[in-house]
Amino acid sequence: MTYYIRRFLTQSGSSSTQVWKIDDCTAVRVGIANPEGGPGTYFRAELSESIWDALRRMTPWFEPGEYPFQKTVLKPGEYYARMARPIDQHPHEAPGWSPGTQHEADVMAIARGQLTALMRQLDRICQTVHPTQATFAAFGHDIRNLLILACTEVESHWRGVLIANGVTRDRFSTNDYVKLCAAMRLDSYAVSFPSYPWLAPVSPFAGWGTTGKPSQELGWYGAYNAVKHNRETEFERGTLEQAFAAVTACAIMMVAEYGIPAGLGQSSELRTFFNFSATPTWPLSEVYIYPYGEGHGDWTAVIYPFGPK
C-alpha cells in the first residue's frame, strides 16, 4: 500500500490536503472514521480498469494537465531524527517541526544555552565594533575566539544529526557534513537581525555542496580552520563578518533540526535577535504525515537515506 497527499481548493478558495492510501484496486482516505461508508472517501476499481482510471471516472479531481495526488516519501508517522519539516496538515509552514523533540529535551536545552551564550558574546562585541559593511572586516582576539566556539558548535550539530540517522565514522569530515545541506535544505535559510536592521540577511550555507570542495565553500568555516590552526599568519581572517555567519549557522542548525519554537524557545532572546527571513519550501511528497492511527499509530524515527556510507 502506498500513501499519497491530495491537494485541493476548498469552497472558500483556500488550499487544503488529504492523505490517501492507494493500491492497484482501492483508494482509501486516511484519518477519518469508516472511510468505506462515507461519500468521496473510498473508491474501488472495476476489473477492467486501474484505480487511477476509476478515480478519473468517479471524481472531478483531475483537471486537464493536473495531477492532484503526490506520492509521499514517508509513511504516516515516519520522520527523520533531528530534521524539522512541515506536517501534511500545514504543508507551507516551514521550517516545520520535529516529532522527536519530546525525546531530545536535554540535548535541545544544552544547545539552546550554548547558542544563547554565543549570541550574547556577539552582541557584546557589537557594542565595541558597530557592525556595518565597513566594519565587517574588523578582527581581534574576542572575535577569533567567538568564531572558533561557534564553528565547533556547528560541527557538534552536524555530527549529532548524522549519528542520529545511522552515520558512523571514527572521524567526520566536511565530505560527510555537506550531505546535510540537501537533506535539511540548509542553503534555503536566511537570517536578519532586528537589532541591526541595516545589515543584509545572512545565508551562511549558500552554495554549499556546489563545487566539490565543501570546506572552502563556506567562507566562515574556512576562516575558522585558518585561525584555529595558524593564528600567527591567518589571524586577520577571523573577521566580524565571519563570526556573524558562524553564529547564524548555529541558529539555523537549531531551527533546521527542531523548528523555530522548539529550537529557539517559545519566548526567548534568541527569537528577538534572530529573524528567519527565508526558510525552505518543501514539496508535498516530502513533508511529514501525521500518524492517523496507521502503522504503529505513533511517530517513529527512520533513517535518512544519505547514500553509501
Task: Please give a structural write-up.
The chain has 2 domains: 2-98 and 284-302, no CATH class; 100-278, no CATH class. The mean pLDDT is 95. It is elongated and about 80 Å long. The longest helix is centred in the middle third of the chain and has 24 residues, at 105-128. Helix content is 37%, strand content 13%. By secondary structure, the chain is an alpha+beta fold. The chain is built from 11 helices and 9 strands. It starts with a strand and ends in a 7-residue tail after the last strand. It has helices spanning 51-58, 105-128, 141-164, 174-177, 179-184, 214-217, 219-229, 231-234, 240-258, 260-264, 269-273; strands spanning 2-9, 15-22, 26-30, 42-44, 69-71, 78-80, 190-192, 275-278, 300-302. Strands 4-3-2-1-5 form a 5-stranded antiparallel β-sheet, with helices on one face. The protein has a two-stranded parallel ribbon with strand order 6-9.
- Counting structural domains, the number is 2
Q: How many whole angstroms does the radius of gyration measure? A: 23 Å
Q: Outline the low-pLDDT stretches.
A: none
Label the structural class: alpha+beta
Average pLDDT over all residues: 95
Number of helices: 11
The residue fraction in helices comes out at 25-40%
Distance between the termini: 29 Å
